[in-house]
Amino acid sequence: MNTKLINRALYVDVADRLREQIFSKQLEPGSWLDEQSLALRFGISRTPMREAIKVLASEGLVTIKMRRGAYVTEVNRGDLEQIFTILSLLEGQAAKETATKATEIELTRLDDMHHRLEKAAADRDLEQFFEINVKFHELIQEIAGNRWMNGVVDDLRKVLKLHRRDSLTNTGRLQNSLLEHREILQAILKRDPVAAENAMRKHLARGLEAVQ
Question: What pTM, to 2 d.p., does this model score?
Fold first, then answer.
């Protein structure tokens, strides 16, 4: 029993390390994941490496091709359109539910999070802005409280993380994104579910334009 727990912790740790290498572009989109070479580099056997790759495949970060092995996922325009369509539906629903059910404490947390986003934008700190932006969306999902929906959103956002940070460098995108977040926040604070849903969908539509 202890051995199984150790093995599970190992492949989860390996998956975390590979995921970070994918996000940092050390492993480029389209690159082949050579199980044997990676296992040697990590100083582990091929079994936990294989399981780690399966985890990343389940998240959409890795694509397993029949008789060819595993590759870092390449996302094309059609993929992006499909991902944003799903996110628009799910995150729009999350914003709608948050506007309806959020407690005063939760609204304060969301407002505080947005103040941090404003500061990151004022400082032109793209790294901080990106991280707080993710947390802002995650907090809305948390308040909405639909774990099934959140699981799908989380996996889709992992795939988008390969692109979204770059999109913030587009001319005017940082300020536009901030304005869109303000609209989402104001609608939620006013407890207007329709406006909150529409603001979130508008935000994601603009996000799609920025990454294409």
Answer: 0.79
